[in-house]
Specification:
The protein is mostly helical. It contains 18 helices and three strands. It has helices at 3-24, 49-69, 73-81, 89-116, 125-144, 149-152, 154-160, 176-191, 198-219, 221-228, 230-239, 269-287, 291-302, 307-337, 343-350, 354-382, 400-426, 430-456, and strands spanning 83-86, 244-247, 250-254. Strand 2 (244-247) and strand 3 (250-254) form a beta hairpin. It starts with a helix and ends in an 11-residue tail after the last helix.
């Protein structure tokens, strides 16, 4: 049997396992997105929850075992190295100008419409463009096609036209400003009425603009939007999952996720932290709109803690837990592999595969949300100051839960494969490479169970937050 036929056979087996899980998980619909609060969905399971979760975890475990059977370094390397590159210099220049103009126009549109347009979230083109167009659809494009944000980014284009570079960016700072500001954005998105009050959204956008423009002018746009700006780092990391990648010579078409095994996706501990925030914020947004999260918040409010501090505390505590568990796995990997490589370096190299998990979970959260509100976005964009009285929304079919579950499972399975690929790049011995994967595979199974459990629960409104 040839190398490629063996790979195809194992892929077929893994696909069959996914189909089994979908059959067992019939009737499951994803929880609604808490941050946006513009569309409500509910979920239910038609089988015992323990069976549904065990099957999902079994798929990831089985895919890990099947992946470990692939020890041919030639086949593993082909996934990483096979790519088609082509130069598109003129097209890139024209596209950059077009998208850059579109980005600035979009920013001005959101500010103007948010201030003078309708002040109801579902009727505001500013709110829908921000959350449906940017938070949901543009991120989905970033990890399924390629990252368009460098060309669209209006703040970078404005900062590039102004004097900049007054200070040197400290190397020790890494991407920590992006990590901290992303946590703040997640918290503000929840506790402030951004999806129901367009003027509140504009205030948040203006505050963010002042912050990121100050960083870009102080440290140069190239440095700031590479390391310090949370939205740019967000799209850059999600874009590393995509099959189309930008290179110095143009564009490169490769296997989805193959970029995640490169050693330059992240280069320091702050990059690990940002990836963990991406994974945690999606789990967090599912947790606080399901019964476990609502009961937790109610209990803490009952003992006198302010709701704003509760949501901030849960956000930080969950991130700290993810951080602790991940570094424990990195330390265990170093012991199991019996390597001279530091656990810090191992943590950096094994973190990018988690982006595949984040992409899968993001898809489960936002695919249905985007489809449901896409007609509303078009209706309000056509008449932003006088939208129709009842903007159109699509109702999702009962089987759409299958699509969302598939997104979660495929993201986890891709993460397993990339972890396998990274281990064979780092360690010369096959047994050593296989042993190094176990702690991270266990983490991925844990993430799978938690994600599928939250997806299976009926969603409800987050309590004690502005409607």
């Amino acid at each position: 049997m040839s190398r490629r036929s063996a790979l195809a056979r194992r892929t077929g087996i893994a696909t069959a396992l996914v189909l089994v899980t979908l059959a067992v998980g019939a009737g499951v619909v994803a929880a609604s997105n808490v941050a946006v609060g513009l569309s409500e969905q509910s979920g239910d399971t038609s089988v015992p929850t323990w069976l549904y979760l065990a099957t999902g975890a079994g798929v990831i475990g089985a895919s890990a075992l099947l992946t470990m059977l692939m020890t041919d370094r030639g086949v593993i390397g082909s996934f990483h190295d096979d790519a088609v590159g082509f130069s598109v210099e003129r097209l890139r220049e024209a596209g950059s100008l077009l998208l850059g103009t579109l980005g600035i126009a979009g920013l001005l549109f959101v500010i103007v419409v948010g201030l003078v347009g309708p002040q109801i979230g579902n009727f505001s083109a500013a709110v829908l463009l921000t959350f449906v167009g940017g938070r949901a659809l543009l991120t989905i494009v970033a990890y399924t096609v390629g990252n368009p944000w460098p060309a669209l980014n209006p703040w970078r284009r404005i900062a590039s036209a102004l004097p900049n570079g007054y200070a040197t960016y400290p190397p020790w700072l890494g991407s920590w400003p992006a990590v901290g500001s992303l946590l703040v954005l997640i918290w503000v998105e929840l506790v402030a009425p951004l999806s129901s009050s367009p003027r509140a959204l504009v205030a948040a956008i203006l505050a963010y603009s002042a912050f990121t423009m100050a960083g870009a002018i102080a440290f140069t746009p190239e440095t700031w939007f590479r390391k310090g700006d949370p939205i740019s780092v967000w799209f850059r990391l999600y874009g590393s999952v995509a099959p189309i990648q930008r290179t110095d010579d143009g564009l490169e078409v490769c296997y989805p996720g193959s970029r995640l095994s490169d050693d330059d996706v992240i280069t320091d501990v702050s990059g690990v932290a940002f990836i963990l925030v991406l994974v945690w914020e999606l789990t967090y947004s599912g947790f606080i709109v399901t019964s476990p999260g609502v009961r937790t918040v109610d209990a803490l409010v009952g003992i006198g803690i302010p709701p704003l501090l509760i949501y901030l505390g849960l956000l930080l505590a969950g991130f700290a837990l993810f951080w602790k568990v991940y570094w424990f796995a990195a330390a265990r990997t170093r012991r199991r592999a019996e390597t001279y490589l530091s656990y810090r370096y191992l943590a950096i190299r094994f973190a990018p595969p988690l982006l595949a998990i984040a992409a899968g979970y993001h898809f489960a959260h936002y695919a249905g949300f985007s489809i449901s509100l896409w007609p509303s976005l078009l209706d309000t964009m056509a008449a932003p100051l006088n939208p129709p009285e009842n903007p159109t929304q699509y109702a999702l079919t009962s089987w759409f839960g299958y699509v969302e579950i598939t997104g979660i499972l495929l993201g986890h399975m891709l993460a397993v494969w990339i972890t396998h690929s990274v281990s064979f790049e780092l360690f010369p011995g096959k047994l050593q490479a296989l042993r190094s994967q176990y702690p991270f595979i266990i983490i991925m199974i844990l993430f799978t169970v938690v994600s599928l459990y939250l997806v299976s629960l009926p969603s409800m409104a987050a309590v004690y937050v502005p409607d």
